[in-house]
Amino acid sequence: MLWNLPFITVVVLTLIGLVTVLLKKNIIKILLGINILQSAANLFLIALGYREGGVAPIFTLAPSELMVLPTPQALVLTSIVIGVATSALVLSFAMVLQKKYGTVDIDKIRRLHG
After folding, report:
1. Quick one: DSSP state of residue 68?
2. Do residues 48 and 72 touch, judged by C-beta distance below 8 A?
3. What share of the chain is helix, strand, coil (3-state, %, to 5)?
4. What's the pTM value of the predicted model, to 2 decimals?
């Protein structure tokens, strides 16, 4: 049962992120839902690359069969950097919308615009 705990957590985080993105109207809350989805994907990649008793691939003298897969870790690091850039972009859009329309609610902005 504990072996499946990371995958159960991935499912729960994915559901929370999807519900937040689909049901919330506030841009900031939608961004939080997207970040939760990103965290679920990162956890999924790390859980796939985990090996019981594995060693980080930076130790070159360790036997090769005991090393943890480095590819998921590299993918997660790249995903984190892209996620930070995306969050900054969405937050800057939210600031512009707040200044122009006085709200970050998508429905209110849609009604104000036409």
Report:
1. P
2. yes
3. 75, 5, 20
4. 0.82
